[in-house]
């Protein structure tokens, strides 16, 4: 865990400097101490049981959110800060998503990924699906429980799980040539996550 703590502390410090925060070293030390205590907690041990979830990363983000909440930052400001922290990570994913988006079989790749992810999530219990339907050119699902949301909720900051919920929207924004993604609601501020993913025809319209 020491190596992981050093990694996230470094990213946090860099973002604090980029954002022009005062007392960077003091804030960095507080964050590192909080993260270490959270990793040593019974809650972390209870949550870190899902193979499909990067729980150390989720906890690192939660610790950042809690630190910045105490500084009086709004949810929007905290989400912007998180984007700054993981800027390099996001760029790498964006490049991959753009490459997939250029492929003629982009929708087939997305469909396969969703089917495989659904199977793994159901198996390890990290997500509860009330509905998961795959038809020709369309995937639709409703999720009533997500352990990522539960972790944020445990620490009293459920709304900030949108940091992770938004990664889906961001990913599909790079695939619009072949894929249409519609999010009706998510669990960060609603009672379910309801998404529809559709294959686009050459005229840009969804086909199902």
Walk me through what this model shows.
The chain is 58% helix and 17% strand. The protein contains nine helices and five strands; from the N terminus they run H-H-H-H-H-H-H-E-E-H-H-E-E-E. Strand 3 and strand 4 form a beta hairpin. Helix 1 (2-18) packs across helix 4, helix 1 crosses helix 5 and helix 2 packs across helix 4 (55-70). The N and C termini lie far apart (47 Å). The relative contact order is 0.11.
Number of strands: 5
Percent in strands: 15-25%
**Backbone structural class:** alpha+beta
Question: What is the CA-based Rg, rounded?
Answer: 18 Å
How many separate helices? 9
- In this structure, how is the largest beta sheet organized? 5 strands, antiparallel
The average pLDDT is: 93
Order of helices and strands: HHHHHHHEEHHEEE
Q: Give the low-pLDDT segments.
A: none
Could you tell me how far the N terminus lies from the C terminus, measured between alpha carbons in angstroms? 47 Å
